[in-house]
Design a protein that fits this description.
about 100 residues; mainly alpha; about 65% helix
């Protein structure tokens, strides 16, 4: 019984620390709305080839990224620093290079 209570309390603490930051999400979505949306083929031609990313990976990312993250893959650029920006929520060192 005690373990169940401890697990429940730990789950609540974990959720609080890891829950989505809706203000950050809104800023990101607002920033992305201003960009044109590229098809997977266009994204591959513009960015994937020069970065050595396989076309199949671009197709997969296009199909899965929005479903997983809520962000449209066709509007993302290779220089976007989503992970860095999100890391700053938990005390990362700076936001240089962030696009929003």
């Amino acid at each position: 019984m005690w373990h169940r209570l401890q697990n429940f309390i730990f789950s609540l603490r974990s959720y609080t620390a890891l829950r989505p930051d809706l203000a950050v999400r809104r800023r990101v979505v607002r920033s992305l709305q201003r960009r044109p949306s590229l098809s997977p083929q266009d994204w591959f031609e513009l960015y994937g080839k020069s970065l050595g990313i396989a076309e199949a990976v671009v197709q997969f990312a296009d199909q899965q990224f929005e479903q997983y993250s809520g962000l449209p893959f066709g509007k993302l650029l290779p220089g976007d620093r989503l992970a860095k920006s999100l890391d700053n929520r938990w005390g990362g060192d700076d936001q240089r290079g962030a696009v929003w």
